[in-house]
Amino acid sequence: MNLRQIGIIRTLGLALLIVMAFSISLSPSVTSEDGSEETEILTSSDWFTWTMNGTHHSVFAITNESLNWTHSIISIYNETGVYKQPSFYNAVENESELEMNHTNLENGTHSANITLYHNETVLANHNWSFYVGSTLDTDNDGIIDNDDSCPDENSSGYDANADGCIDDSDNDGVKDNVDICPFDSADGCPAALQDVPTNVTEEVPGCIHQSAENYNPDATEDDGSCRYEEDTPGFGITSSLVSIGIVAFMRSRRF
């Protein structure tokens, strides 16, 4: 073997070492308790994106270009944790986006799991949930119409059980948002009592006798102010003079 061949072999060996070192550096790693090096599994969600594209479609993409990954696996489960088949999606290296079709899934909340690999080594793993179906919220109360028992009633702030309807906590037929005492069916709380009028009627003084000249139909208490026609001074004097005249005339007839 001549010197030229030896130089070529050394060059190839050095290049191989550089490639191996570069590959190892791209895989995140930690040191275990026994001192051996292990691959660190990422559990955060900042290395990929998941975007719903319509009511039954989504788009997945790996955004962290520093991960030396070869493929990923995404699996879908329903709310009770049952694997939904078929829901196996596989993205391979250099694939910019993975479009997923969820028309086989019923409307509702589902769970997803993604595992990212470098050959057989797990690089990352993450779980999250997503909703399949319409997300329309007609009454803007934060509960989508599909889950809203009162889709046309904004229950914000008055919906303890999150059913989309304004609560009637004391079951008195008056909803909490207009009930002065929402937790007292008898409305006996101070907030209600302070606005309840008393049963005491305010007396109105005046003349309560209808035969009087100054009768007051609104009066409820006689204040002694009633005036009658015969009580007027002119009428009394006139009556007296007439009486005297009649008596004098009768006496003159006798003589």
Describe this structure in words.
The strands form 4 sheets. A 4-stranded antiparallel sheet has the order 6-5-8-9, with no helix packed on it. It has a 3-stranded antiparallel sheet with strand order 3-4-7, with no helix packed on it. It is an alpha+beta fold and 255 residues long. The protein has helices spanning 3-26, 190-193, 233-254, and strands at residues 29-31, 37-39, 48-52, 57-62, 71-77, 89-92, 98-101, 108-118, 121-132, 205-206, 221-222. Among the domains are: 48-132, Sandwich (Immunoglobulin-like); 137-195, no CATH class; 197-226, no CATH class.
List the helices and strands and how they pair.
Elements: H1 3-26, E1 29-31, E2 37-39, E3 48-52, E4 57-62, E5 71-77, E6 89-92, E7 98-101, E8 108-118, E9 121-132, H2 190-193, E10 205-206, E11 221-222, H3 233-254
Parallel strand pairs: 10-11
Antiparallel strand pairs: 1-2, 3-4, 4-7, 5-6, 5-8, 8-9
Keywords:
single chain; 255 residues; four-stranded antiparallel sheet; three-stranded antiparallel sheet; 3 helices
Strand order, main sheet: write it out.
6-5-8-9
Indicate the mean pLDDT.
Answer: 75
Derived from helix and strand composition plus strand pairing, the structural class reads alpha+beta
Major sheet size, sense and barrel closure = 4 strands, antiparallel
Parts with pLDDT < 50 across at least 5 consecutive residues: 15-36
The CATH class assignment of the domain at 48-132 is Mainly Beta
Percent strand equals 15-25%
CATH homologous superfamily label of the domain at 48-132: Immunoglobulins
What string gives the helices and strands in order? HEEEEEEEEEHEEH
Helical percent range?
10-25%
